[in-house]
């Protein structure tokens, strides 16, 4: 698990193109399928889906078994929420509504032993259930955890250069839907949202920080990659299931006519 997490962070920081999906169903089988299919990572959505801690723990373990990185989108940025998923061995955290540099610094501190405020224990999975020495666990944990700051508010866009400059921010993750709401519009491709996306991408490039985005499907992947986005969360396990079900329903309807 430590190796998987470190490789993911190294590739993320190198702005290699990475592809994954949201897991919104608390089922470890979905994680195994995504990892077995070759996705670079999954995002376990503890913000907008009904994961309890035990289900998150199973899904993180499934990601390890499938050889893919498990990032957890937190329900809140509190210290206990961060600590819980890192102790499980999660590769990183996707933190909603990061609006300024102080918020980013607080999150970074909660994910780090050295120079941070992460509560120490090597007894969970992340510490090998006690097998890792204190020094080794601290070093591997600090070097392997990724912090993805979700930029989904006008304030976050206004402060994006300062957020990108915070040491330890590994990715600026664009949430176009919440950006649209924040700007008072109802279209993901509204000019105000497009301008905000461009500003985040420019800030990431200037700071040498990866930029990520959620897309409902892969249709616009190449276009966003050309703009400088390197991490893509494409759809979710539920949206993929719905698309397959709709396709089957349509074929059955055609067969009946």
From TrEMBL:
SUPFAM superfamilies: Phosphoenolpyruvate/pyruvate domain (SSF51621). Its EC number is 4.1.2.20. Residues 22-241 form the HpcH/HpaI aldolase/citrate lyase domain. GO terms for cellular component: cytoplasm. Keywords: Lyase, Metal-binding. GO terms for molecular function: 2-dehydro-3-deoxyglucarate aldolase activity; metal ion binding. Belongs to the HpcH/HpaI aldolase family. This is 5-keto-4-deoxy-D-glucarate aldolase. It comes from Pigmentiphaga humi.
